[in-house]
Amino acid sequence: MFSAVTSEGKTVYLMKERYAATEASELRKTKFFCPVCREQLDVKLGSLKAPHFAHKQNKACTIEFEPESAYHLEGKKQLYSWLKAKGCSPVLEPYVKSIQQRPDIIANVQGGMLAFEFQCANLAPDLLYKRTQGLKQAGAEPLWIIGGNRLKRTSRHFFQLSAFHWQFMKENPRQFLLFYCPEARSFYKLHHITPFYANYACASLEAIPLTKANVKDMWFSASAPSFQPAAWQSAITRFRHKPPRFLSKEANHLRLLFYEKRQTPLPFLPPEVFAPIPLGAVFLSPVFIWQGHLYLYMTDLAEKRMSIRFSAVFRFCKMQIQKKRIHLRYEYSEQLLREALKQYINFLCGKEFLIEGEKEVYMVKYPVHDCRTLEGVMERDQTCFGE
Ligand SMILES: [Zn+2]
């Protein structure tokens, strides 16, 4: 941390990049205390990390659990200077007694109070929830910024996202993820996060250098990159050429169902079970699993020349969730689940796989295609996802 209090109760910040010898020895002679637990602190003026205060070894603070990394200290400092330059009157590491929390920075943004939390280390989901609620209760809007060192890109439009990342999406799955890297001095925003597998998602990355960043960019991007259907299609192609070698219980169950009902092996699954849905992160199950169950349900009805009611699709999906054939990422509201399914149905209507007759009543438009060759099914991918 950069702030501490003296025995006279004065708050001192260590904000310089480096301290001259006389200043340093003066600082080392002074006693500094943690504003939260009141324990005496060490003054750290080494060269590996920015000058900062730290609790003595083996002294646990009531709200701090681990030493801050150089990366975290540096990022916090840069964000603070940036907010100051933008005229947001930031306060570094304020201790908000009513909630016993100390956010990294609190700033005044367009008349509202905003709490910036720069999270580089792992954080238990219940702690994230508790801190988010606490800050709201104290009247501050929390903005979680993830350490740029936690951004794992596997290809241009694909990212490895773990439970650590998904927890930040939990409050609002429509959200983007925001990262900051103090080494690159840049924000990174992930838009259109659409999972293919549980922890592997297609997304569009936007880099906003700190020198060009406005505070409002954190919520609104004038030039947010669009979703990349070609990247998504390439993931489907990879799946067809090389389906996952180890199948989970739920994937194997779906594989058997497709084989029994449609004589379709896994690499030939229809493109309709790979729809990139904006709210796809609601599901923990891979895209082809949750959509695969719904696809079989709808095409079974179509074979019997029966129409498909949205309410029935919704009921069917909830039943599959109960039977643990489809897994949700979190306990989501019914409304959000309904919205995700609606997006899927609308996608199928857009691709003229379904046609809507009466409101929320659908028919499958053509006799269902069952492609028997990889070429055939990839041609259908191209019709479905190609530009
Ligand atoms: Zn303390």
UniProtKB/TrEMBL annotation:
Residues 228-372 form the Competence protein CoiA C-terminal domain. This is Protein involved in establishment of DNA transport in competence. The lineage of its organism: Bacteria, Bacillati, Bacillota, Bacilli, Bacillales. Residues 21-63 form the Competence protein CoiA-like N-terminal domain. It comes from Bacillus atrophaeus (strain 1942). It comes from the Bacteria. Residues 68-219 form the Competence protein CoiA nuclease-like domain.
